């Protein structure tokens, strides 16, 4: 079953399309890594797909009402600003808002979803702390937990693991894989191609607003694509428990 379908999605900034005729679909059970250099259009693609900015072409999510969309997809933006010193568990509970009727108090199920998300992100013991007092990486984990608590078929996350320490990066990518095994999907932008190669079932490579490759990490991370899009060389090999990718040199 398709959780997201884009058809010729185009987003212009001024006269220039920064997302240019992108068509793709995300099915159940996938961890899709969206990769590409700075300015490739990844964030703009997400925002267009979610209907947060004006676009041409179609997105299945953008066609939904805001309430239905919030139950279909959980969005974690790149900006990590937490504006108020609210308790961690209160912030994570905001992920449950799409499931609450107006004015309704959180049910046991909502509290259970929040507790599970907090545990999944290694935040047990942080529940009552003001979120603004946490470190940058801890705040990022709280925002991922809020996204998990939303309990949607699709998670769309813009560089969610940037700034996390290695153990939490790997644990978060493992968690995404577990979510995919439950039949949900994760569409995630990443700059760490090593983690992308190892933990994503599929990669979509963007360059100058267009998709230039879409497939398994081995199909996408070819020497030619790495040269043409990132201007690097790299070593890619199949290890005993997954792909191993090591960037080597800048080529231009
Ligand atoms: N509001 C805006 N006005 C003008 N240009 C914009 C605007 N927002 C984005 N752009 C341009 O669109 C292009 C794509 O930006 P986008 O943020 O989608 O890239 P990205 O792939 O997410 O990059 P990064 O990896 O650096 O986060 C960039 O060249 C950016 O300068």
TrEMBL record:
Pfam families according to UniProt: ABC_tran
Gene Ontology MF terms: ATP binding; ATP hydrolysis activity
Coiled-coil region: none
InterPro entries the record matches: AAA+_ATPase (IPR003593), ABC_transporter-like_ATP-bd (IPR003439), ABC_transporter-like_CS (IPR017871), P-loop_NTPase (IPR027417)
Source species, domain of life: Bacteria
Keywords for the protein's UniProt record, in alphabetical order: ATP-binding, Nucleotide-binding, Translocase, Transport
PANTHER family (UniProt xref): HEMIN IMPORT ATP-BINDING PROTEIN HMUV
Protein name: Vitamin B12 ABC transporter, ATPase component BtuD
Organism from which the protein derives: Roseicyclus elongatus DSM 19469
